[in-house]
Amino acid sequence: MKIRTTIVLCCLSALLVLAMGHESPAQQVSAEPWNRIGVVNMMKILQLSQKNTDHHKQVNAERNARQAELQKMLADLQADDASLKTMRPGSEDHLTQYKSMLMKQGELDSLEKFYTQTFEAEKNKWSQKIYQQILQDTTRVAQELGLTMVFERTEPEFPMPPELLGQTVSTLKLLYHSGPIDITDQVIDKVDASQI
């Protein structure tokens, strides 16, 4: 009887040890939280994403075309001014030329303001669009890798202008990481493959 009791106790002890050693998947995730965290470098994505680079090339080409248009208008205005200086002040031709110059100057000023506002609005629209795409693609990559959290991790560049130091200190939240998985390159690939 003692032998049977001893064997039963040994078996129960072995089962208890095995049960304690084998954790459920939920316990495993919470036991290893640092293996489930990723980081992403937003600035690197914006700098290396082909979609973002192509967009900026397109915007710069359009901006250069608008700038050339404004430069041509300015050159015409300067030619009209040179012509005005050859005319007798107060004459009918002088007044007509002067009126034309003022109207051209007004048009030039209006177009400069319009183009500036248009480019700022487009820049803001694109920034929101690319940021939303980065967030979506970060979520997809994190889910594919089974990550539970992803932090933004952009290294500050030193030396830094004093006006940016306060902003950097207030926005830089992840100061150090050793174990998290950097998913920046995977997110860049997803952004470039997207239809934005």
Short overview:
With 196 residues, the chain is mainly alpha-helical. It is 73% helix and 5% strand. The longest helix has 54 residues, at 92-145.
Secondary structure elements and pairings:
Elements: H1 2-21, H2 25-31, E1 37-40, H3 42-48, H4 50-85, H5 92-145, E2 149-152, H6 162-171, E3 181-182, H7 184-193
Parallel strand pairs: 1-2, 1-3
Helix pairs in contact: 3-7, 4-5, 5-7
Structure description:
By secondary structure, the protein is mainly α. It has a single domain (33-193), classed as 2-Layer Sandwich (Protein Binding, DinI Protein, Chain A), CATH 3.30.910. The chain has 7 helices and 3 strands. It has helices spanning 2-21, 25-31, 42-48, 50-85, 92-145, 162-171, 184-193; strands spanning 37-40, 149-152, 181-182. It has a 3-stranded parallel beta sheet with strand order 2-1-3. α3 (42-48) packs across α7 (184-193) and α4 (50-85) packs antiparallel against α5 (92-145). The longest helix has 54 residues, at 92-145. The model is unreliable at 19-31 (pLDDT under 50).
